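fyi for ur records
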Amino acid sequence: MVMLVLGLAMAADQVGINIGAALAGIGVAGVAVGFSAQDSLANVIAGFLILLDKPFQLNQWITVGDHYGKGNNITLRSTRIQTVRNTYVVIPNKTIIDTILVNHSHHGATRVDVPIGIAYKENIPRARSVILHAVRGVHGIAAAPEPDVIVTELAASGVNLSVRVWIENAAAERGTYVRVMETCKLALDEAGIEIPYHHLQLFIEKVEDRVWQKALGLLGPPGDGPSSAPAPHSS
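which gave:
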């Protein structure tokens, strides 16, 4: 084979073909092909690592970056995920290796944490009792471990709670999340427990007389408006 290549090169040189330029062009093309194949080779190697390491199995529910769904297929180049919207996401195997992967199905039972807020004026034990009574009737909730409600934060506008329930199958995680949230909202409304919204309270402890005088000047002379302005005072 080597002799054949040398013979062709000598023959081409005899007919006036610039062998040096041709070889240089082939070399540049080879480098370009090598760079283009680099990612594909990395994905193939990552595919073998996934098959050996087994971070998940087919039909298990996983999260990779922003993508959540059921592992559908693993090839040498990519991993395919079927999402809850029934879309098909193809992720390069190198991304699977380099990104944090969460396996929701690995240990069987899964805990679902649902955030709920109540106003500061509300009684936490009463709110907890109302929520627990309501969520025990949500379809798919496991009897053990039992649901619980904990305080997670004393936030700016209210007290943040976390309603924690367990399910047997990770496939029901998203559906259980929305059902629990809706059930808690309806139960708290029925019990008259306020769910806060973001707001800002401004407390004025003292207003100097000069500020009142300036404000009255902006309102205009007395009697011009529909009603007379209040007399300045300080508190």
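The first strand starts at residue 61 and ends at 64. thats all i got for now
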